[in-house]
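Form 12-C: Joint structure prediction
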Amino acid sequence: MPRQDLEYPREPHSTVKRYNHQAKYDLETIHGIVNAAPILHISFNVPDSPFPATLPMLGHMGSFDRPSADIGDVLEVYLHGYVSSRLINSARNSEKGLPVTVSASHIDGLCLTLTPNSHNLNYRSAVLFGYATVVDKLEEKLYAMEVITNGIIPDRWRNTRTPPNAAEMQSTSILRVKVTTGSGKVRTGSADLDKNYDLDDEDLVKRVWTGVIPMYTTLGEPVPRGDNRVTELPGYLRDFVKETNEDAKAYAYDAINVEVPKKKQDDDA
Amino acid sequence: MPRQDLEYPREPHSTVKRYNHQAKYDLETIHGIVNAAPILHISFNVPDSPFPATLPMLGHMGSFDRPSADIGDVLEVYLHGYVSSRLINSARNSEKGLPVTVSASHIDGLCLTLTPNSHNLNYRSAVLFGYATVVDKLEEKLYAMEVITNGIIPDRWRNTRTPPNAAEMQSTSILRVKVTTGSGKVRTGSADLDKNYDLDDEDLVKRVWTGVIPMYTTLGEPVPRGDNRVTELPGYLRDFVKETNEDAKAYAYDAINVEVPKKKQDDDA
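Section 2 - Result
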């Protein structure tokens, strides 16, 4: 961790307007939310349309200049996406880079109260604003590909056929987003307490269940491709599935300050 | 279902450029993806910023004029969000409504191949383009609140204190997005087959695991609020958790044409 927590500057477009006791501006929190998201939503303006374009893309944060940079340090967002030809071209043709908005959101629980209006979510969301340019330098492109690959599955890169060949490098576009500012929001805790006029309503509190339904992402049993020849699942993949599931579940229950239940009723699918 | 599947018009900003064998334009598929998402990302242009604003919001599709409308019919998106004061104001002050881009994405699996460049995801994503206006009519506002509430947890509305009182109606803003067009993308199946020069590499195929790691959202054990008086979890909530978990898991495995495994190794958290 950096000696002191770095924060993004509060600018009009990045300042959380409401419930700002939930607002986060420290890089460590915001970058953590972005890197925990399997996909990011990238929005940018399109010349002849009143609608921003929004594309789901794979991405991860890193620093080519300081590969050892900490999650709380100044980092760039590296993006890789299939549907982004439009984005790539716009990024190429704009001088300082294409202004993009990068969003990541996780839901950690459904918070149920006595009346729908006070229902809420436990969640983590982050938005970064920055300028996207196409990465042309070979070394940086390779660095970004590895960061993005291992960002999804730790250690996958060296456990595949790498480096990519010339054709693959050619056909793959990587964007680097220089972040100018950003913000995040995190909501944890149990369901909000209702107003007294509801809490004092005996019949109501006797019929309406209140509390939190934890929500988290689960990775299932890896299913080999028909021609897969590695009969036993490699340890790094077994660990990835196990740890991802443990961490996701732990976060959802930690958010409401309860132990992860031993029995797995929640998975009785 | 409508007698014939309705499709959104292909307009430049809504046309999927690449891998368009995966592109979907039928309303039923696209609306289903949107309604299955617990949160939506709403992007819109901001006057004095080069960056689109993107907000995570709760939303669900419906039709106030034809409440019985099918998922494949023409529907509006109803949005409810806490952080959207800026959005609400813009929507109020723009005549035909504020142009917004509504995005929803689900990841159903990680597809692992011999080389990172051919790695892929099983996913469902949808984007809708439309004009957002503030819902002022009381009846429609109530309709929207119920649709959004029950869209997250079926039957929750009538199992809470409703209708909202005057103060709650006042403090709650609902947006209606009249959809002009949209598109979706769905990827299913096992990991893509690699190029022959990799498949023919004995050492490579013997060391690199290929296949799909299913991914799905899980709801945990509901945790009552401290003052909850409904000791037994109501049936509609028990069913919601059970069915949501079964459906999410089933989709992820169906996407790769395999049975949901009986044993729950995947949940060994």
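Section 3 - Comments
The domain at 20-214 of chain A is CATH 2.30.110.10 (Pnp Oxidase; Chain A). The radius of gyration of chain A is 21 Å.
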